């Protein structure tokens, strides 16, 4: 190899290194953007669930059913009684 080929090889390696570093930086930026978006959506969903729970509790209070069991608990109790009768 003469000096010219060695210089071209170093330039090619340098160009490739710069390309890969740039590509990795772009990927990291996109990953960070997506991560922030996902976290934002999760926070938004959590807030909406909290609002929904509050609305349900408000409705239950308006209907005077504060101390009554939830429908799923009533169904479970009924199934438990049926199982005991079948024994």
How would you describe what is shown here?
- One of its GO terms (cellular component) is nucleus.
- It comes from Dorcoceras hygrometricum.
- GO terms for molecular function: transcription corepressor activity.
- With about 90 residues, the chain is an all-alpha fold.
- It has a domain of about 30 residues.
- Helix content is about 85%, strand content about 0%.
- It contains two helices and no strands.
- It is elongated and about 95 Å long.
- The model has no long low-confidence stretch (mean pLDDT about 85).
Estimate the strand proportion: under 5%
SS-based class: mainly alpha
> DSSP helix count?
2
**Mean pLDDT over all positions:** 84
Order of helices and strands: HH
Query: How many beta strands in the DSSP annotation?
Result: 0
Helix content: over 70%
Shape: elongated
Low-confidence stretches: none
**Major sheet: size, sense and barrel closure?**
none
Q: What separation lies between the terminal Cα atoms?
A: 91 Å
Rg estimate, integer Å:
32 Å
Keywords: Stress response
Pfam families: HSBP1 (PF06825)
GO molecular function, one term: transcription corepressor activity
Protein name: Heat shock factor-binding protein 1-like
Please give the structural blueprint.
Layout: H1 3-62, H2 71-86
Can you tag this structure with a few keywords?
87 residues; stress response; elongated; mainly alpha; transcription corepressor activity
